[in-house]
Amino acid sequence: MNLKNAVPLAILCLGLLFSHAAAAGSLVIGTISDESVKETRIFLPFAEYLAAQLQEEGITAGEVRIARNIAHMAELLSRGEVDVFVDSPLVSLAVRARCGSRLVARRWKKGVAEYRSVVFVRRDSGIQSLEDLKGRVIAFEEAFSSSGYILPRHSIATQGVQLAAMSGPRAERPADATGYVFSGDDENTIEWVLRGLVDAGAMSLRGLKRRAGDDFGSLEVLLETESIPRHVVSVSPGTTAAFSSALQAALVSMDQGNEGRKVLESFERTTKFDAIPDQTLDMLDEFEKPVTALIGGN
Which of 117, 32, 103 is nearest to 297 (CA)? Predict the structure, then answer.
């Protein structure tokens, strides 16, 4: 063989080899958390199940990768180190804005397809509108909570209410804005409102009804947000349309067999996955810019 022709041929063969090797390998499922051991234990059976369903796509194993924050997850997706990202829709939108990931399915986490958040006060507080919260304090759960912070804060902002961060519920209250603090937990939020430590709280409507119990009658809802998916599944920006379709088919069919239902149950009592309705996708597209501005790359 002419050596002049052999070199390009060898390069072509190596290129084909590495291309095939890149197509085969692990399916890496990603999420954002500061509890990597706990999250890995939750996500690994799910990743391994999907890997088994995607063998014809060159997948041989399932793995889990935990990101520190939104920016880190966007970086992992961009580099192809994470293939599939599962999280709340608002966090997923912030990640998508940074890396171009694509939403492919809706997760019915704990049997819930969608949820809405509320802002609530004590019924005897005399507060009748969001405007009445000026100079008062509202408690959110934590900065990464979609239902307990991102969604209600976005809805409050659309009503023209100005919010100002406070160091704690007993700190000096802003005169020309509504002060806000983080309670760290939905139960704390309810307790702080009932005790008068803060004037209002925010969380999912379903969570408020469940956690408040007999005290629910003592509370009044000032604002209900729009309904959004409980959780969504995204794929990395480099994912092919064929692989996305195969992944979506594997997800949607999980609840149709015994093994899939067992894995779903272990995956935080997920009921099923389905396609995201077009109307919901349109709404999420509208949310992307303001939500990304709100939570940035944290």
Answer: 32
**pLDDT tens by residue, 259-282:** 999 999 999 999 999 999 999 999
Among 168, 158, 151, 174, CA closest to 295: 151
Shared domain check, 220 and 124:
yes
Amino acid sitting at position 27 = L
Question: Tokens in use for 65?
Answer: 């990768």
- The token pair that represents 80 in the structure block: 């192809």
What stretch of H or E contains 71? helix 70-78
Instruction: Indicate if 138 and 214 belong to the same structural domain.
Output: yes
174 lies in which domain range?
A: 117-225
Buried b (16+ CB within 10 A) or exposed e, 133-161: beebbbbbbeebbbbbbbbbbbbbeeeeb
- pTM metric for this prediction: 0.78
Alpha-carbon gap, residue 126 to 199, rounded angstroms: 10
Q: Are residues 90 and 176 in the same domain?
A: no
